[in-house]
């Protein structure tokens, strides 16, 4: 599997050949910026600033560039022209973006939210362009709070209910897929941490944080983290139910404290 540096260099070479002068700035966000990149599990998240609003021809060229990238790790990200970038949009507007390696240009971009700007401002790593600290970006902390509370209530709470329903009739010792359990065991704690501290934490940090604030779910989070690190950890229906319970507990606690 190629390294982060190799994949990003390959992308820049391809896009510069296809669209010379188009990509002005490229910043690493996500797990790479947080120092928590896990080969085989993590994607390479980016925010890409362009010299102009993309035309139809630009979008076709970008689609071809991303189609030619290696299947793993995915190079994902959001494209914003320079003017729009400095407006710091956080309204999930339609914008070109890449998710799981697939380029999309005509859909709302779910990554354009307040937490993106918090993460970029605190941890973004410049590959091309000025250092983030020189850009004059700001963080709307009230918007971050509202976004995280809404995300917990409208995404994570229903997801927990769906997970619980999916295993409702299964014996507790039946093995289940690890991805969904790990996602639920670690994800909500990251939002809770941001609400509590105004900062971003990795999935590894989220496991330790969950063990502090809701200790009953710490062991499951630790097993989820060990699975992400490549250890041979298996999960059962009982674990899936506990993961759903942990989501409910994190959401309820966040709403009680900050809702």
Break the fold down into its secondary structure elements and pairings.
Elements: H1 4-18, E1 23-28, H2 30-33, E2 44-50, H3 56-67, E3 75-81, H4 82-87, E4 97-99, E5 102-104, H5 114-123, E6 125-128, H6 141-166, E7 175-176, H7 178-197, H8 203-213, H9 218-228, E8 235-236, H10 237-258
Parallel strand pairs: 2-3
Antiparallel strand pairs: 1-2, 1-6, 3-4, 4-5, 7-8
Helix pairs in contact: 1-3, 6-7, 6-10, 7-8, 7-9, 7-10, 8-9
Q: What is the third-level CATH name, the topology of the largest domain? A: Beta Polymerase, domain 2
Number of helices: 10
Neighbour order of strands in the largest sheet: 5-4-3-2-1-6
Number of strands: 8
Unreliable residue runs: none
Class inferred from helices and paired strands: alpha+beta
Main sheet specs: 6 strands, mixed
Instruction: Please provide the ordered H/E string of secondary-structure elements.
Output: HEHEHEHEEHEHEHHHEH
Radius of gyration: 19 Å
CATH class of the largest domain: Alpha Beta
GO molecular function: nucleotidyltransferase activity
InterPro entries: NT_sf, Polymerase_NTP_transf_dom
Protein name: Nucleotidyltransferase domain-containing protein
Keywords: Transferase
